[in-house]
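Incident log, support desk, overnight shift.

02:14 A customer reports that sequence design results differ from what the structure should imply. Their input is reproduced verbatim below. On-call engineer (initials T.W.) acknowledged and began investigating.
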């Protein structure tokens, strides 16, 4: 038995060593051609499909995805499935992380996503998750014998309006609030979704709300944050993507950088609100994982770490081992692509953790990653590419994520160079991705005959509304307010607003912000003055997920937005403005906190 265990261990080590000897691109190529002939996505495949009388099947997968590996090994290597695919289909496979245009289009279907098209590019089938060989055979035969698209409900074209061109109409706002409230899972915690995970929009929205009848936002946010700790890796740190079976005890072990970033941001924000050491520890444990496994030598961040040590085989036992035993067996593959969008998420999270702790390490890492992305991914005009070169790009998500990250860097440093670059990103978005007067599309495709035309994404338009609105308050430039309103017009479309049954808090957050002013804290004094520095740090720690922090130093001239005039005093002071009311000067952090609380009531 001992010899057998050592033999298994040796085989695993050899497999991991081999994986480490080949680049990510080579590993992906080996995976894609194993057992079948996969092609990359392009419109030319439809010309071929028409000429050869074939259908097109798109396998939209992820390198970190356990069930994608299983489907590749079980379903796509099944002889009968493979024979039918080769005879009647053109087979296309895409890593969804590499193509945000396809990822945002089909993200509601989960990974792997299986989409079947006819030769004209019409979608015939859209399926999510693992499909076993028997189910796949049935599905393929059905679509070959009856290649007709499913009937879709007609979509409403009108925009629901409140008459002010900003925010949701009252009825729709109430409907979404009711959904958000009814969607909370009182029994299991979190929200009522097929998988359990921390939905950052829902928790953030709860943080900003007050207790009402049948609605206990702080209690729900805290319970969700507590439950999410069960999805933390106790050894390496970091958070698993989600848990299945309706509870928090059956994790899928992939670690996506977006989940690390958003969890770290939310736990840091929660620490600002409630000063719970458990929340700070969670944020720091995620940071520990990011630094150890997903930070590149240059300081930028990678995409993900695989759920499996060996593709297609469950790693549950592996993740129960100690650090030493894990490393003896090997480390699950890390996707070492460096994408702008993903780095923007991490930079924003690091700025939040810095604001909550005043630990310079987090700020230095955020600035280093931002400088790398600017040097290596910035486009002429202020936008950002996804990778070194983009197919069918640029993509909205990259410039949007980096634009918000640059604004966050300005908010925690008062360094106007970050604000300038954030404005450039916003202008690039307005010029490149505007969908008329209603929202923004996810990518640019200049070919009017392309089979898949650019379309808006709900999540991206939520982010545009929040980013552009806050940028408007920092700069006073009405162009950004119009951008936010444009996204809100899209989010107010009834079919868009009602698209989701449970996770609607993102729309509510955007609506709340575009219809109100942020908590506004300004420090007046020299940036060399230790007392002014102390006041600015206190302003950053103020618990609010919607605030504007500024530092007025006469050596730099007027602030970008001169909507408030501040007196020049003999010593450093801070002023708080809430709901269009501004305070008397505060000369220490305690006085500042008391003034803001008084104004908020």
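02:41 Re-run completed on a clean worker. Output:
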């Amino acid at each position: 038995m001992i010899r057998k265990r050592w033999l298994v261990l040796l085989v695993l080590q050899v497999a991991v060593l081999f994986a480490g000897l080949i680049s990510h691109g080579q590993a992906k190529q080996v995976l894609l051609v194993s057992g079948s002939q996969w092609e990359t996505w392009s419109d030319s495949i439809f010309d071929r499909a028409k000429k050869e009388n074939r259908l097109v099947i798109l396998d939209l997968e992820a390198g970190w995805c356990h069930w994608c590996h299983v489907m590749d090994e079980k379903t796509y290597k099944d002889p009968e499935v493979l024979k039918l695919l080769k005879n009647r289909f053109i087979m296309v496979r895409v890593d969804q992380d590499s193509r945000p245009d396809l990822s945002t289009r089909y993200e509601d279907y989960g990974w792997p996503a299986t989409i079947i098209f006819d030769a004209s590019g019409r979608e015939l089938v859209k399926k999510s998750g693992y499909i076993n060989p028997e189910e796949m055979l049935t599905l393929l035969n059905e679509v070959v014998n009856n290649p007709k698209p499913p009937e879709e409900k007609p979509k409403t074209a009108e925009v629901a309006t409140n008459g002010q061109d900003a925010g949701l109409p009252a009825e729709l706002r109430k409907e979404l609030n009711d959904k958000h409230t009814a969607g909370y899972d009182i029994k299991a915690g979190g929200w009522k979704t097929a998988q359990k995970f921390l939905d950052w929009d829902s928790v953030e929205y709860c943080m900003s709300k007050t207790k009402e009848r049948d609605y206990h936002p702080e209690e729900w946010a805290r319970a969700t944050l507590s439950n999410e700790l069960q999805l933390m890796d106790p050894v390496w740190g970091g958070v698993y993507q989600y848990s299945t079976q309706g509870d928090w005890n059956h994790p899928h072990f992939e670690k996506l950088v977006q989940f690390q970033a958003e969890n770290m941001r939310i736990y840091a924000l929660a620490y600002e609100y409630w000063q719970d050491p458990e929340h700070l520890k969670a944020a720091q444990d995620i940071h520990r994982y990011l630094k150890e496994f997903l930070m590149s030598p240059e300081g930028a961040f990678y995409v993900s770490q695989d759920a499996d040590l060996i593709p297609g085989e469950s790693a549950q036992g592996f993740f129960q081992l100690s650090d030493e035993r894990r490393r003896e067996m090997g480390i699950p593959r890390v996707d070492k692509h460096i994408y702008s969008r993903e780095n923007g998420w991490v930079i924003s999270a690091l700025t939040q953790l810095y604001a909550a702790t005043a630990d310079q390490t987090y700020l230095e890492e955020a600035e280093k990653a931002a400088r790398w992305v600017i040097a290596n991914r910035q486009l002429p005009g202020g936008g950002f590419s996804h990778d070194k070169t983009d197919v069918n790009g640029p993509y909205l998500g990259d410039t949007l994520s980096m634009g918000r990250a640059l604004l966050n860097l300005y908010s925690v440093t008062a360094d106007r160079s970050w604000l300038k670059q954030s404005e450039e990103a916003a202008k690039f978005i307005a010029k490149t991705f505007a969908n008329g007067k209603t929202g923004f599309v996810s990518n640019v495709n200049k070919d009017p005959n392309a089979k898949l035309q650019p379309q808006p994404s709900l999540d991206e338009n939520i982010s545009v509304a929040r980013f552009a609105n806050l940028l408007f308050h920092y700069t006073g430039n009405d162009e950004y307010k119009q951008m936010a309103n444009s996204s809100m017009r899209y989010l107010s479309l009834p079919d868009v607003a009602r698209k989701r049954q449970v996770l609607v808090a993102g729309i509510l957050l955007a609506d709340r912000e575009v219809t109100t002013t942020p908590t506004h804290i300004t420090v007046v004094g020299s940036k060399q003055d230790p007392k002014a520095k102390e006041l600015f740090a206190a302003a950053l720690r103020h618990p609010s997920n919607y605030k504007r922090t500024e530092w007025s130093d006469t050596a730099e001239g007027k602030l970008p937005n001169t909507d408030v005039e501040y007196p020049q005093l003999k010593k450093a002071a801070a002023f708080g403005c809430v709901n269009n009311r501004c305070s008397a000067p505060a000369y220490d952090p305690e006085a500042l906190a008391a003034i803001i609380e008084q104004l908020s009531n």
